[in-house]
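User: Reviewer 2 asked us to show a designed sequence for the structure in our supplementary figure. I'm pasting the structure tokens here. Could you produce the per-position amino acids so we can include them in the response letter?
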């Protein structure tokens, strides 16, 4: 676990609510929670989907590496249990009927260290339901920042995420002892609110990515990246990012 917390829970909730709003069906039809089931929400963020799952009668525990996110979740939703916990350090053993994760796993490099912990947390026959960025996710934004740093003569900034293909994800699940029974790779154009939506996205999700830069360099990169991205992501009235998502439902054998 890092010693600094880059997340601003208020900014996340205000500017990036699409992250949890767009995945209501993942917490519903894909997860299909049942009353009395024990479910772990891995990378729960500010807790909106955790609370949605809890309303089905399931007993839900939400964990996130960000103390700021967990604090916001506890304040908004007192019923589910929330804990600050890093995915690579999960200590649960055969505790959960299901593990759920939305828009979080792509932050959890390396995934090879996470999936065995998920498998250990599941009861035999338990299910792992996930959505994460897939190969090609936010590619225009990645290209825009790379273009900006080159143009400004700055060092390359490797992005902090992992966006696997379906095949790569299934292989990682299988190596952890989980069998993928359903997958879905799809494009989801995502509205970024406000005329400053592109910059707000980078501020919210790319803070750690741009952290090696000085404040002056960050400002220059944001301006140059926005100029590059505008012909691709600005539709005349709003910013629409090129999200590509990867879902899976995997089972731990009995």
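Assistant: Here is a per-position design you can include in the supplement:
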């Amino acid at each position: 676990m890092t010693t600094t917390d880059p997340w601003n829970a208020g900014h996340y909730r205000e500017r990036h609510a699409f992250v949890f709003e767009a995945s209501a069906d993942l917490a519903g039809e894909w997860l299909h929670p049942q009353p009395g089931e024990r479910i772990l929400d891995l990378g729960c963020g500010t807790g909106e989907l955790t609370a949605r799952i809890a309303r089905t009668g399931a007993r839900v525990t939400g964990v996130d590496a960000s103390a700021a996110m967990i604090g916001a979740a506890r304040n908004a939703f007192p019923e589910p249990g929330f804990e600050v916990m890093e995915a690579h350090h999960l200590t649960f053993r055969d505790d959960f009927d299901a593990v759920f994760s939305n828009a979080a796993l792509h932050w959890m490099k390396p995934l090879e260290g996470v999936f065995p912990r998920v498998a250990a947390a599941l009861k035999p026959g338990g299910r792992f339901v996930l959505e994460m960025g897939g190969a090609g996710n936010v590619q225009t934004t990645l290209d825009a920042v790379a273009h900006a740093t080159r143009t400004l003569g700055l060092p390359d900034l490797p992005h902090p995420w992992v966006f696997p293909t379906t095949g790569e994800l299934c292989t990682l699940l299988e190596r952890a002892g989980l069998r993928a029974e359903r997958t879905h790779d799809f494009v989801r154009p995502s509205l970024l609110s406000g005329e400053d939506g592109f910059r707000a996205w980078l501020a919210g999700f790319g803070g750690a990515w741009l952290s090696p830069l000085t404040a002056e360099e960050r400002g220059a990169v944001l301006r140059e990246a926005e100029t590059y991205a505008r012909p691709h992501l600005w539709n005349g009235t709003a910013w629409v990012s090129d999200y590509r998502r990867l879902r899976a439902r995997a089972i731990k054998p009995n």
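For the response letter, you might also mention the following. The longest helix spans residues 215-233. The beta strands are 38-42, 59-64, 81-84, 96-102, 122-133, 179-192, 239-251.
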